[in-house]
Design brief:
This protein has 688 residues and is of the alpha+beta class. The chain has 16 helices and 37 strands. It folds into five domains: 270 residues, P-loop containing nucleotide triphosphate hydrolases (Rossmann fold, 3-Layer(aba) Sandwich); 108 residues, Beta Barrel (Elongation Factor Tu (Ef-tu), domain 3); 61 residues, 2-Layer Sandwich (Alpha-Beta Plaits), CATH 3.30.70.870; 113 residues, Ribosomal Protein S5, domain 2; 81 residues, Alpha-Beta Plaits (2-Layer Sandwich). The strands form eight sheets. Strands 18-17-23-14-15-22-19-20 form an eight-stranded antiparallel β-sheet. A seven-stranded mixed β-sheet has the order 2-3-1-4-5-11-6, sandwiched between helices. Strands 29, 34, 35, 36 and 37 form a five-stranded antiparallel β-sheet that branches. Helix 6 packs across helix 8, helix 10 crosses helix 11 and helix 12 packs across helix 13. The longest helix has 17 residues. The radius of gyration is 32 Å and the shape is elongated.
């Protein structure tokens, strides 16, 4: 692969709704630039981007794939990101290292939920957007309708068609450029005159385009207002400025399957996507905030944005260089650990294939292998003046399953194997929930977690059984109560004796546990007080009424008795345990359930259904707001009611609703539900 300077590189994230043709487009661009000699198909599992066995099996993209393409004197690093909502972590990683997003739109479906989410992320990051209306060869394809759907949905953006299609559906055969005012026919993009029947339509669209370009530059707007004709170069200059400042969103069209429009799209990406030198990123050095400008001669700072642990190659860290130039054998450090990182194995990735390289210049993307302590989000930098680049923020998991190893051998390997998967995917987590004594695998959705379970078996030979996780309830008390308990055990040898009088008091939420002694006169020796506390803490872990941890309780030992011979540590542990149980049972115990703050974004027509659904789930709606043509509903809902909310929301909104949720607080379970939970817990205990 030829060497390119920073200003010759374009990093573009390819985004869009699942099924809009992102992987097919990437494949078409590879074929057009003669990187490959035969077009692969997603359905056959033969594309360069989709190389994972799970992607072949499911027929969808799961991983972020880096596809470098050379065209003219430019290098395009295309980051093909999954469109399926469960794999949003890959989209976040792609956008973190790209200068712009190429948003794909289906010519028939128009704007879909995945389009809106991609757009919103680009908008939040203030990164340029370019739209490509794909599948213009489909039956019922309608370019104008697709553009209108963009304008309706994103009313605050200036949507400017840069091309018009020549024909639609099975008659689609080329595009008209509104800048060069020429027609380009077929996959070869052969120049031709503009069809006469399109003259009026082309003229009107060009006027809107030139006006938008002129408004980005004072000099151009003066020339335009004076009635002078802007040259194609001036129009492009104005459009480049508008795209860079995110005030203009250019729209192109074509067919990835037929290869029509590929040449014009590549030229557009080269002209309108900002070079790395035109954007900067904030970082910290010696505790101070600095700005990295992708200077190839600056201090080295490269960030890991993706990690793959391959059984043959080992650890593969995908890095984006934000400053300086990394040479092969360069000695750097991991800013997080301070450990040395020697870049002995430097590569450029294209899908699953790695090509050795001797350097990575600022703005470029590559792979470093066999650096064991490097994980996603780490910064590689020089020891002299270490720089740290902030990590992107990944969302909280939305879907959980309890996992149990199928065999003893699986149990030994499970923790290490899941940890390896979580290193590859920051949106995947394994948590041991003490309250329920379960290992819970958390992800962004059912498909996401299922892929992780499949990979555990395929890659690491670890088979696990899954189930719906239990809700991590807690137990507490609502009033003061006291009890006493005498433990007396006489055997053939030494006996056991301990008597403890205890009072329990409720504490404020989140206060935890307090243990106090009010024993006077030596009724219980001070040496036995820790033994009583140990017994109490054992019960607090195991629970009193339903087997869940006890929280926010103050235990006060105020009296008791001991025996000069038979009193010992184990006796007071037992007495402490039993007296605490009795006191809690008399203190009007209650169950606490986790309440989650949930934010649901749906098209306006589904708002009523979602609101009424929250009422059936014991939810409390906190408020609503409008975002473009969608409604955002915020509510507090018990976790027990939303364990599988994603599936229900999809069916309620025909797949057009999305949500986020995070833990907010605990509050008491209603009495009628509490009795059911306690009864179920006791029944489960008897079965064991």
């Amino acid at each position: 692969m030829a060497k390119f300077q920073t200003d010759q590189i374009r990093n573009v994230a390819i985004l869009g709704h699942s099924g809009s043709g992102k992987t097919t487009l990437t494949e078409a661009l590879l074929y057009h630039t003669k990187v490959i000699t035969r077009l692969g198909r997603v359905e056959d599992g033969t594309t360069v981007s989709d190389w994972d066995p799970e992607e072949h099996r499911r027929g969808i993209s799961i991983n972020l794939s880096v596809i470098p393409i050379e065209h003219g004197n430019l290098k395009f690093n295309l980051l093909d990101a999954p469109g399926y909502l469960d794999f949003v972590g890959e989209v976040i990683s792609a956008l973190h290292v790209a200068e712009a997003g190429l948003v794909l739109l289906d010519s028939v479906a128009g704007v879909e939920v995945g389009t809106e989410l991609a757009w919103e992320r680009l908008q939040n990051l203030n990164k340029p957007r370019i739209v490509f209306v794909n599948r213009m060869d489909r039956e019922n394809a309608n370019f104008q309708k697709a553009v209108e759907s963009l304008r309706e949905t994103f009313s605050d953006a200036t949507i400017i068609p840069m091309q018009l299609p020549i024909g639609q559906g099975e008659n689609f055969r080329g595009v008209v450029s509104l800048v060069s005012m020429k027609a380009y026919l077929g996959p070869e993009g052969k120049e031709a005159p503009i069809p006469e029947e399109m003259a009026d339509e082309v003229e009107a669209a060009r006027m809107a385009l030139v006006e938008a370009a002129a408004e980005t530059d004072d000099e151009l707007i003066m020339k335009y207002l004076d009635g002078e004709e802007l040259t194609p170069e001036e129009v492009r200059r104005g459009l480049h400025q508008g795209v860079k400042e995110c005030t203009i969103v250019p729209v192109y069209c074509g067919s990835a399957v037929k290869g029509i429009g590929m040449e014009r799209l590549l030229k557009a990406l080269g002209r309108y996507v900002p070079a790395p030198t035109e954007r900067s990123i904030k970082a910290t050095q010696n505790g101070e905030e600095i700005e990295l400008t992708n200077d190839p001669n600056g201090p080295i700072a490269a960030q890991v944005f993706k990690t793959i642990i391959d059984r043959y190659v080992g650890r593969m860290n995908y890095v984006r260089v934000f400053s300086g130039t990394i040479h092969k054998e360069e000695r750097l450090i991991n800013a997080r650990t301070g450990n040395e990182a020697r870049c002995s194995n430097l590569f450029v990735a294209r899908g699953k294939d790695l090509q050795p390289t001797d350097q990575l210049v600022a703005g470029d993307i590559g792979v470093i292998t066999k650096l064991d302590d490097l994980v996603t989000g780490d910064t590689l930098t020089t020891p002299a003046a270490p720089i740290t680049i902030p990590k992107p923020e990944y969302p909280q998991p939305l879907y959980s399953v309890a996992i149990t190893p199928a065999t003893q051998a699986d149990s030994a390997k499970m923790g290490h194997s899941v940890a390896a998967l979580a290193e590859e995917d920051p949106t995947l987590r394994l948590e041991y929930v003490t309250a329920t004594k379960q290992n819970v695998l958390q992800g962004m959705g059912e498909t996401h977690v299922d892929v992780a379970v499949q990979r555990l078996e395929q890659r690491y030979g670890v088979k696990v059984e899954t189930s719906i996780p239990k809700v991590p309830y807690q137990e507490t008390i609502s009033q003061v109560a006291q009890a006493q308990y005498r433990h007396k055990k006489q055997t053939g040898g030494a006996g056991q004796f301990a008597e403890v009088h205890m009072r329990v008091e409720p504490l404020e939420t989140g206060a935890g546990f307090e243990y106090v002694s009010e024993v006077f006169g030596g009724a219980i020796s001070s040496v036995f007080l820790p033994s009583i506390e140990k017994g109490v803490r054992q019960v607090m872990e195991q629970g009193v009424i339903a087997g869940y941890p006890v929280v926010d309780v103050k235990a006060v030992v105020y009296d008791g008795k001991e025996h000069p011979v038979d009193s010992k540590d184990i006796a007071f542990q037992t007495a402490g345990r039993e007296v605490f149980k009795l006191a809690v049972q008399q203190a009007n115990p209650v169950l606490l359930e986790p309440i989650y703050r949930i934010e649901v974004t749906v098209p306006e027509e589904y708002m009523g259904d979602v609101m009424s659904d929250f009422n059936t789930r014991r939810g409390r709606v906190l408020g609503m707001e409008q975002k473009n043509n969608r409604t955002v509903i915020r509510a507090l809902v018990p976790l027990a009611e939303v364990l599988r909310y994603g599936t229900d929301l999809r069916s309620m909104t025909q797949g057009r609703g999305v949500y986020t949720m995070e833990f907010d607080h605990y509050e008491p379970v209603p009495r009628h539900l509490m009795d059911e939970i306690i009864a179920a817990s006791k029944a489960a205990e008897q079965e064991r």
